[in-house]
Amino acid sequence: MRVLFITLLITFQTFAQNDSKTSFQKGRYELAVSYYKKADFVKAIDLFSIASKIKPETEIGQEAAKKVDTLKEILRKDILEKAVGTWKDAGDKPVWSSDAVNTADEKTFDETIEITQTQILFSQIDKKSHAKKLIKTENIVYNDTNNSGSLYSEIVLSDGSIWNCMINEKGDILRVINVAKKTENGIEKIQTNNLEHYFMKI
């Protein structure tokens, strides 16, 4: 009798947990849909992602996963359209800080990146002669791993470094933060002392 009681208790607890997960998943999904309808795709993709992972085997979980894939394409297209062009490296301090200005003045050359639809070209421009030297070229490769911090704006460079890219509302400041490293063992997240750079559109 005691064994039967314990079995029933475990069954009821499992059912309650599943019911709670189902309810939470539905709530996240419905909230995501509301943001989606308002065209707030950044909040929507985060909520769809949460909903897809709670119970991925359910219809809601599968539908949420599809929405994540759709929104990735939309958001990546949007940020890439803003990013295409030439950007001047302003250093590792915000462009409005005095430290950034002083560091830039000390250099004999400017560092720039030119972003196209498929590549990032890193160059140096001599301040006196204005001669331009191409340093390296990187293909635009997105980080699509499941443990990605950002669902759409992380770029993987050829050295394995992973950078989260953000552009301000005016579209003239690009900020990149080194958030992880891709190794043979997978993705290693960088939690502290993250390298970062600011760029000004020119």
Automatic annotation (TrEMBL):
Keywords: TPR repeat. PROSITE patterns: TPR (PS50005). TPR repeats lie at residues 25-58. InterPro entries: TPR_rpt. It comes from the Bacteria. This is Tetratricopeptide repeat protein. It comes from Flavobacterium reichenbachii.
